[in-house]
């Protein structure tokens, strides 16, 4: 059975999210919206970032679709503002895959995923389904450093303090904390990042971006730990 049929398991999981289009060319947005709504996914197109932000704050599981590259400075400012929100909002950028740096630039600017603007319906559906699929209700406690990873909320907790993480950040912290007390190579961590393309090699450059974001979140959350890098040895949690 084709995964594009509305009865497939992927559609059922994807229907839990709400998809918001912003900074998107009209025709492309309308075509994608029709595809998603045909499968029962809630969608809305916003020409204004303020309206989009208001809708995002009200939605239970919002997902933001952006056209890439962003065309104006205020669009980049909005993306940075979105990344400072307490709750994590998945951002999916769509652009021309022939532009060799487009994927890297989008991910380094705050997007969580990058897809071609055309003919990527199956991969888009798979991503939305992964975001809407219920996670295990149990949480793992990592007593070695007094921290707790909550797999359902995708967060790092310590007492009453909590830091929300993106999927890539969560994968990094999960691996580091499960190997607390030893150095972890950058290549080893990069291999843990969620794959953005089939057969794509782990990107140490992209890992550095995620590590920077994690360090900032740990600092702002006053979690009392730090990630230290030692040349020739790797990364360790202290």
TrEMBL record:
Occurrences of domain Response regulatory (ranges): 18-132
A cellular component term, taken from the record's GO annotations: protein-DNA complex
Domain OmpR/PhoB-type: 137-238
Keyword Cell membrane annotated: no
Keywords: DNA-binding, Phosphoprotein, Transcription, Transcription regulation, Two-component regulatory system
DNA-binding region: 137-238
SMART domains reported in the protein's UniProt record: Trans_reg_C (SM00862)
GO molecular function, one term: transcription cis-regulatory region binding
Protein's GO biological process: regulation of DNA-templated transcription
Protein's name in the database: Transcriptional regulatory protein BasR
Organism of origin: Methylacidimicrobium cyclopophantes
Gene designation: basR
């Amino acid at each position: 059975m084709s995964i594009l049929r509305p009865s497939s398991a992927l559609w059922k999981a994807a229907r839990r999210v709400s998809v918001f289009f912003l900074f998107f060319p009209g025709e492309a947005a309308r075509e994608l919206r029709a595809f998603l709504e045909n499968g029962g996914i809630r969608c809305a197109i916003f020409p204004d970032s303020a309206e989009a932000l208001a809708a995002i704050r009200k939605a239970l599981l919002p997902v933001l679709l952006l056209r890439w590259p962003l065309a104006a400075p205020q669009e980049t400012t909005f993306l940075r503002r979105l990344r400072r929100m307490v709750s994590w909002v998945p951002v999916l950028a769509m652009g021309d895959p022939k532009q060799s740096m487009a994927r890297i630039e989008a991910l380094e600017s705050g997007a969580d995923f990058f897809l071609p603007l055309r003919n990527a319906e199956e991969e888009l559906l798979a991503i939305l389904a992964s975001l809407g699929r219920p996670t295990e209700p149990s949480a793992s406690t990592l007593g070695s450093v007094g921290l707790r990873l909550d797999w359902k909320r995708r967060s790092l907790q310590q007492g009453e303090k909590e830091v929300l993480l993106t999927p890539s950040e969560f994968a990094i912290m999960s691996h580091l904390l499960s190997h607390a007390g030893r150095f972890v190579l950058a290549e080893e961590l990069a291999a843990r990042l969620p794959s953005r393309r089939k057969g794509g090699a782990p990107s140490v450059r992209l890992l550095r971006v995620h590590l920077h974001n994690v360090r900032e979140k740990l600092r702002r959350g006053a979690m009392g730990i730090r990630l230290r890098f030692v040349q020739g040895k790797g990364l360790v949690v202290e």
